[in-house]
Amino acid sequence: MDRVTLITGGSTGIGAATARALLKQGHRVAVTGRGADKLAAFAASTGAPAGSLLTVPGDAADAQDVAEAVRQAVDAWGRLDNVIANAGFSLPGNLESHSPEDMRAMVLTNVLGPALLVQRALPHLRESRGRIIIVGSVAGVRNTPGNLYSVTKWAAHALAENTRQLVAGDGIGVTVVAPGVVDTPFWSERGGTPEATPVLTAEQIADTIVFAVNQPEGVTVNQLTVRPTGQVN
Question: Which domain holds residue 167?
């Protein structure tokens, strides 16, 4: 039976590249995103066979939207095998310059969002003995001055580990994928990726996620840190 995968933040960047890669492997894929127009454009660009792609507008940090995405995927295809908590964003500047409202939004999206997805998906993943992939960051394994985004990714890495412990007896695999600098819309608010810094592509990180998803039953790679060759920190 075709595997079913739900990806949050799936209309652009790493999420979109991962959706494309999994569709090519025959997965049925549901993707979420806050922009209905972006989701529609992504769906049109995939050329996915009818019935293989579902787009669900919604906010990854909203409990009702997350529950609805899980419900729609299960209603459409009768099962759920993998969830990929990819939705997230960073703020330009540092803790001293962020507004409280922007900080709240980032913490909710980057920390609460993956937790909500895990919570809602667990009953279905226990049935399928499926997998949870949380997209972290190298910022989740090192600190930089005043970087609240880094704080949220440390939390995402912690969520992956305590979820792994929670489901260790259920046959569910849990992996955190921690990318270095990736050339995606993530950098748009910063004027592009840093000059003279080596970068990865979204497709390269998607390949890493697919590697984790495709591990044989009984095998889980718990953490994958992926930097472009030449990135020091």
Answer: 4-226
The answer to whether residue 88 sits within a structural domain is yes
- Count of domains observed in the chain: 1
In the predicted model, is pLDDT for residue 185 greater than 90? no
Q: Which one is predicted more confidently, 37 or 186?
A: 37
Q: Which two tokens stand for residue 94?
A: 């540092």
Question: Is 138 assigned a catalytic role?
Answer: no
The answer, as to whether pTM is greater than 0.90, is: yes
- Of the residues 149, 150, 172, 223, only one is catalytic, namely 149
Q: Is residue 232 part of a domain?
A: no
Per-residue confidence (pLDDT) for residue 1, from 0 to 100: 62
CATH number at residue 183: 3.40.50.720
- Tell me, yes or no, whether 231 lies in a domain: no
Kindly tell me if the per-residue pLDDT of 191 is higher than 60: no
- Least confident stretch, 135-139, 168-172, 193-197, 225-229: 193-197
Q: Is the pLDDT of residue 87 over 60?
A: yes
Domain presence at residue 41: yes
Q: What is the DSSP string of the chain?
A: ---EEEESS-SSHHHHHHHHHHHHTT-EEEEEES-HHHHHHHHHHHTPPTTSEEEEE--TT-HHHHHHHHHHHHHHHS---EEEE------SS-TTT--HHHHHHHHIIIIIHHHHHHHHHHHHHHHHT-EEEEE--GGGTS--TT-HHHHHHHHHHHHHHHHHHHTGGGT-EEEEEEE-SEESGGGGGGTSSPTT---EEHHHHHHHHHHHHTPPTT----EEEE--TT---
